[in-house]
Amino acid sequence: MTETILLDRPAERVARITLDRPRVLNALNLRTMQEITAATSELDGDPDVGAIILTGSAKAFAAGADIKEMAPQSFGDVHAADWLGGWEALSRVRTPLVAAVAGYALGGGCELAMMCDLLLAADTAKFGQPEITLGVLPGMGGSQRLTRAIGKAKAMDLILTGRTMDAEEAERAGLVSRIVPADALSEETVSTASKIASMSKPAVMLAKEAVHRAFETSLSEGLLFERRLFHSTFATHDQKEGMTAFIEKRPPEFRHR
Ligand code: CAA
C-alpha cells in the first residue's frame, strides 16, 4: 500500500505514478523515494509496461526534498545513511520514464524530472535549484544533470542564485522536450507514452541505453556501442516484423521481443 504516490494505468502498456502529498507541494521525503523506486523497479520488470509516466499536481510536480524531514539531520546522519543515494535506483530503470511537469519542479523536484528520459512541461512549469537559499547545494544530481542538459552558464546561474526559470526558458535551454498547455498536459503525456509503448520494447530499451551512454563515454566508443546494439536488434522478432511491415505497407505488430 502506498502513502505518498498513486499508481494507475491510463492507457494500454502505460503506467503512471502520481506524486500525492498535496499539502506540502509533493515534497519528496524518504517514504516517497522508497515508494517511487520500488514502483518503478516493479513496473520495469513487467513485460506489459512499455512506458512509465511520473507526474504531480497542477500546482507542483514537486517542490523539492522534504525540508522539514532534513532540517534536524546531522552530517553523521546523512552521511551514514547516504541520504538521497536511493534515488540512484531510477538510473537502473530500463523502461522509458516520461516526466509530466506542471507548476513547481524545484530542487529535488527538478532533479527527479531530470532523471526521466522525456520531460513534458505545462506552460505553468517552473524549474529551479533553490538549495543554495537553504545553505546547501543540490544533492539528487542537479549540479551534474542540469549542467549536462543546459550547459555551465545557465546551470551556474540557477544553482548559485537559486532563481527559477519558466517553461519557455527551460525549453530554450534544452531542459524540456516539449511545452504543452496546462490543461492538455495529461492527455499529451499519455499519448506520448502510448506511442513509445507501442514501439518494439527491446528496440526502445536499447535506444534509451544508447542515448544514456552518450553521457558516459567517448564518441568513438559510443558509436561502436550504438552500432553493436543496432546489430543486436537483428536477433529480434520485432526487427523482422518492423521491416517486413514497412515493405508490405501495413502497420507492424510488435511482440516486444
Ligand atoms: N519541503 C517541505 N515542505 C515544503 C516544501 C519542501 N521542499 N515546499 C513546500 N513545502 C510546504 C510548506 O512548508 C507549506 O507547508 P505549511 O502549510 O505547513 O507551512 C506548504 O508546502 C505550502 O507551501 P507554501 O506555503 O510555501 O506555498 P507557496 O505557494 O507560498 O510557495 C514555493 C511555493 C515557492 C514552492 C515554496 O513552498 C518553496 O519555496 N518551497 C521550497 C522550495 C525549495 O527550497 N526546494 C528545495 C528543497 S532542498 C532539496 O531539494 C535538496 C536536493 O537537492 C534534493
From TrEMBL:
Reaction equations catalysed: a 4-saturated-(3S)-3-hydroxyacyl-CoA = a (3E)-enoyl-CoA + H2O; a (3S)-3-hydroxyacyl-CoA = a (2E)-enoyl-CoA + H2O
InterPro entries membership: ClpP/crotonase-like_dom_sf (IPR029045), Enoyl-CoA_hyd/isom_CS (IPR018376), Enoyl-CoA_hydra/iso (IPR001753), Enoyl-CoA_hydra_C (IPR014748)
Keywords: Lyase
Species of provenance: Amycolatopsis ultiminotia
Database matches in SUPFAM superfamilies: ClpP/crotonase
Name the record gives this protein: Enoyl-CoA hydratase
Family to which the UniProt record says this protein belongs: Belongs to the enoyl-CoA hydratase/isomerase family.
Gene3D superfamilies referenced in this protein's UniProt entry, alphabetically: 2-enoyl-CoA Hydratase, Chain A, domain 1, Lyase 2-enoyl-coa Hydratase, Chain A, domain 2
CDD domains in alphabetical order: crotonase-like
